[in-house]
Amino acid sequence: MILSVRSTTVGQDTAVVEIDGELDLSSAGLADAVLRPLPSQGIRHVIVAAARLRFCDVCGFRVLNNVHTTLTGLGGALSIAEPLPALQRLTHLMQSGARGTSIQMYATLDEALLAEIGGPVSFPIISLPRPIAAGWPDGSADDGCGHGLGHRPDSGSHTRSA
What we know:
With about 160 residues, the chain is of the alpha/beta class. About 25% of the residues lie in helices and about 25% in strands.
């Protein structure tokens, strides 16, 4: 399971975060490590470019929702652009009956930029030479489900790479 997460700041307080791969229990910590610091850096609007997000489970969605909750408390929001049908269904299921502001979904990135910051923006997408594998060697990040990285749900143990 490989997850790639790239963040690009556009405008004064907006970031487009491209997520590529599978966002689940084993990779949620990487997404959390990229997304969670954005509000403290002055970012108030996060647009998740999800066209290449092939899979997202409840733990992965929880990372997105936690950042959304933080941003709404600061007058901003997290939104999702180009979600695949499975992510659309998960978003609707997870937010049905929920209190607070729902995560908005947009068909295209340009549509999300127009709605969130008032217009399309030209920005560079930084291509990494290879996707970032989920996890940090020291296990320091949280996966969004209350486990440190390296948690193995089948064994109930936490592992760390040396």
